[in-house]
Amino acid sequence: MTAELIYGKELAATIRRELKQDAAALREQDILPHLTVVLVGDDPASRSYVRGKEKASAEIGISSDLIELPSSTTQTELLDLIQRLNLDAKVNGILVQLPLPAHIDEQAVINSIDPEKDVDGFHPANVGKMMLGEDTYYPCTPYGIIQMLKSKDVEIAGKTAVIVGRSNIVGKPIGQLLLNEHATVIHTHSRTPDLRHFTKQADILIVAVGREHMIKAEDIREGAIVIDVGVNRNAAGKLTGDVDFENTKEVASIITPVPGGVGPMTITMLMLNTIKAARRQAAAVV
Ligand SMILES: NC(=O)C1=CN([C@@H]2O[C@H](COP(=O)(O)OP(=O)(O)OC[C@H]3O[C@@H](n4cnc5c(N)ncnc54)[C@H](OP(=O)(O)O)[C@@H]3O)[C@@H](O)[C@H]2O)C=CC1
Ligand SMILES: Nc1nc(=O)c2c([nH]1)NC[C@@H]1CN(c3ccc(C(=O)N[C@@H](CCC(=O)O)C(=O)O)cc3)C=[N+]21
Ligand SMILES: [Mg+2]
């Protein structure tokens, strides 16, 4: 069997066309969605993702600006900037690119963002709402993965979903969203002994570690659905996922490629959250 691919890039293009219409309809009501991205330091990978966000914003008709700060920026300076953005009525969404330099407390920065402008869905108030199954800004990568599964009419309810990785931005929230969709969820991580014992049980396997070829054909069950979140730059300078794609696709029923899989959907869900933010904030004004 050769797996069917989910081309995130194509699905993203379809959703972006819809978002472009949504943005045009909002413009008719004088609502102009605006995203501010804050980038501290000069990590080349971060710079590349930020470019992707600017490109998508322009394509959809979301205005965006990028605030670039040196890696020497203090935590107080960053908190002051966020306070200013929180109070700026034309800023609907705030994204602080992670990781931040080591001298800055990441969680303190996330906590300082107005939850109504937290289009990443990382603020504790939004994480809590997600856990309670309430409507909120869902973290972009997990939200994008759910859209990818739904685009293939994958039945999530009752399935065993195994997640490799437990970061706050991917591993933990994708487990929660899959649980909200009634999957049986197993979280694995670096302290999990005999990882394969668990990955072999997965009907749906989500891999978010950051290590090339971390998951191979022999780690999965025949017919499993494999979602590869990893984005690694290998020794040859090539972009690869965490899954040994060439061999694993012969065993899986559905698989996502890297590049062109989860990544473009992450950015698209950020755009969706920004439009939602503009709509919500306009409705809140009396
Ligand atoms: N496509 C996209 O849109 C996105 C892609 N990414 C990519 O996804 C990958 C993961 O990102 P992120 O979640 O931020 O990464 P983190 O580094 O924050 O987390 C990595 C996770 O992998 C776990 N891990 C490490 N080694 C092993 C191992 N040997 N066995 C099992 N688990 C292991 C860690 O466990 P422990 O907690 O025990 O340390 C940790 O939970 C990266 O390649 C990143 O670039 C990230 C965000 C979005
Ligand atoms: N506050 C914050 N929010 C994030 O959502 C966030 C973050 N910080 N820090 C870093 C991670 C990583 N991330 C990616 C987004 C898009 C691609 C993406 O579009 N990838 C393309 C390839 C891009 C390329 O060519 O480099 C693809 O997979 O096809 C990848 C990774 C968002 N993150
Ligand atoms: Mg506005």
From TrEMBL:
Residues 6-120 form the Tetrahydrofolate dehydrogenase/cyclohydrolase catalytic domain. Pathway: One-carbon metabolism; tetrahydrofolate interconversion. NADP(+) binds at residues 165-167, 231. Its EC number is 1.5.1.5, 3.5.4.9. PROSITE patterns: THF_DHG_CYH_1, THF_DHG_CYH_2. The keyword Oxidoreductase applies. Residues 139-281 form the Tetrahydrofolate dehydrogenase/cyclohydrolase NAD(P)-binding domain. It comes from the Bacteria. GO terms for biological process: L-histidine biosynthetic process; methionine biosynthetic process; purine nucleotide biosynthetic process; tetrahydrofolate interconversion. One of its GO terms (cellular component) is cytosol. Keywords: Amino-acid biosynthesis, Histidine biosynthesis, Hydrolase, Methionine biosynthesis, Multifunctional enzyme, NADP, One-carbon metabolism, Oxidoreductase, Purine biosynthesis. GO terms for molecular function: methenyltetrahydrofolate cyclohydrolase activity; methylenetetrahydrofolate dehydrogenase (NADP+) activity. It holds the Pfam family THF_DHG_CYH_C. CDD domains: NAD_bind_m-THF_DH_Cyclohyd (cd01080). The keyword Hydrolase applies. It catalyses: (6R)-5,10-methenyltetrahydrofolate + H2O = (6R)-10-formyltetrahydrofolate + H(+); (6R)-5,10-methylene-5,6,7,8-tetrahydrofolate + NADP(+) = (6R)-5,10-methenyltetrahydrofolate + NADPH. Catalyzes the oxidation of 5,10-methylenetetrahydrofolate to 5,10-methenyltetrahydrofolate and then the hydrolysis of 5,10-methenyltetrahydrofolate to 10-formyltetrahydrofolate. Homodimer. Belongs to the tetrahydrofolate dehydrogenase/cyclohydrolase family. This is Bifunctional protein FolD.
